[in-house]
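Sequence only, no structure available. Ideas?
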Amino acid sequence: MLNLISSNNKPLIFLAFFMALFVTASNFLVQYPINFFGMEEFLTYGAFTYPVTFLVTDLSNRRYGKFVARKIVYMGFFLGVLLTLFFSTNFSDLISMRIAIGSGTAFLFAQLLDVQIFDKLRSKIWFAAPFTSSLIGSLVDTFLFFSIAFYGTGINWITLGIGDFTVKVLMALTMLIPFRILMVSLKDFSKDSIKPSSI
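Reply:
I predicted one. Tokens follow.
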């Protein structure tokens, strides 16, 4: 990770920090259900912010390749955990602590899976890699997060998870728009163009 901290790699640090901000915001907003149209049992505000992290991962993968994308995920995970513990975790509230643990676990597994799937599909039609990787990553993330954070608490985490995942699917489709716009200026590295030793 120390090799990334240089003037040439400031964009990578920015991406990781940007990702961590959205993780932190999502961990805070997931505690607040949407109290409109009877959606309080199905949806929280966090469902609308978290999908941005997959956009960051996919753009990083497209531009720098999977090895650097993984490093950005690790950096985002580290920063996200620190920010979440500092800004949105109530250590006297068990659910708040479980949210922090669930978020970190789900984020790491889902984002690394996203990186791998994106890399496998990067040579397909342009929307196949970002949509498929985000879709599968979101499914894994949703299950891990809601089960770890809310299982056994009396909160209907399955219903919340279904609502959350539905929004994430819609957001994955929406994120294709900025992905398509931004990928025009990004060089698409092949999976063999960046080796771990060169980072």
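Confidence is low (pLDDT under 50) at residues 190-199.
Hope that gets you unstuck.
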